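Worked problem 6 (solution included).
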Amino acid sequence: MSADIPVPAAPVPSGVRPRHPRFAVGVLAFCGVVVAVMQTIVVPLLPHIPELTGATPAAASWLVTVTLLTGAVFTPVLGRAGDMYGKRRVLVASLAVLVVGSVLCAVSSHIGVLITGRALQGAAIAVVPLGISILRDELPPERVLSAVALMSSTLGIGAAIGLPVAALVVENFDWHTMFWVSGVIGLLDIVLVLLCVPESPLRSRGRFDAVGALGLSAALVCLLLAVTQGADWGWTSTRTVGLLATAVVVALLWGAYELRTARPMVDLRVSARPAVLLTNIAALLIGFAFYANSLVTAQMVQEPKATGYGLGASLVVSGLCLLPGGVAMVALSPVSARISAARGPKVSLALAAGIIAVGYGVRYFTSHSLWLIIAGATVVASGTAIAYSALPALVMRGVPAGETGAANGLNTLMRSIGQAFCSATVAAVLANLTFRVGGRTAPTLHAYQLVFVIAAGAALAALVVTLFLPGGRRAGAGTVEESRKAPDTRKEGVRTEELQEGA
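Solution. The predicted structure is:
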């Protein structure tokens, strides 16, 4: 049995690298924003899908659900593939899938084709953790934190931009237009990546763990189907309970297999380290807390004035309520990086969780004024920006450089799972606390306030989890450079496997 032989990776030709690393950062961040926009772009369209396509409301809801499922499944899988076969290569393939999905949605009004296209768009969310991994590999240590902070924040920035942009398109153009535009922008992303982003020389060794990928995918699909459809099927129905039980059984079998295999899809031993495990739990809670802000803001301000709290705002105005939060996320990502560099990402994440909780406190008491609603939503988005910037830094200090793609993919997955649980929770609360007004059923003000309380509770739980994270002052500043000196870094290049076969 051959041993792992660390050897220098083949040097990357200087012509392949961008002339200015800033170009790579900007291009990757743009890709992240585009992909994140795709996740929310159909939300304003959902109420109109039945009349536009002849589909049932239940079928229309799958335009959102399917992106959540495919994103959750493909994010860790493609992250691992990037570690093994080249991060830029897999990132370009993900963008190509986004383009194909956009074209499918643009050329058809058939609900089956639309769901297929949306599934492909959801798979492209892996672009964000892949971009984070490329930045870690390519940038000097002093620039990594700020670049990764911006890249990670694109998930929230895109969500904030997607709703108002989609609302403008729906009200002023044919609804297929937004998919044609997304396809063209996806092609532009591919060209920019090929021109400005170098391929990372880092590779992890071994064969791709196909069994582990299938097991993880099966467990996630069962879990997320039960969570997202439980309200419609009934939480005690045979389908819901059966899927949850299946998810648990498959997860246990998958975990046992991963612990025995030499090159696992997810290194559970690394993932079980407190620095990684607690970071992923915090990511789930932050994802839950953040998503409530996106889910209820537009709906709340669109409620008719007859409810006593609604503002009767238009679709465009309700979408624009989230735009200041997107601007705040762009502005605060470098601030988060500076806090992480000076005090460590643990301090950044704790601060972020506290800000999110305060934001929901503002929202609880200011539900009748448009400007105060926007202010509260922006505070929540600001905390999310700092949190999303700190999470990758915490992940990177806990894993070898050769596992960055898979580890960041898993962390992104945990955020998605948190969002899925948030969606189910919000739907249950708003559906059960209602009253009749103007001949229709609407959620009560207490229902929205309860959502704010639950989201604030999730943020406070994330704060508690963060306090138990290991790490001290400047924990984020040196870890990137230190991890590059570890055995599983540039010294373990693509030639390692060839040498092992020769041995």
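Discussion: The mean pLDDT is 81.
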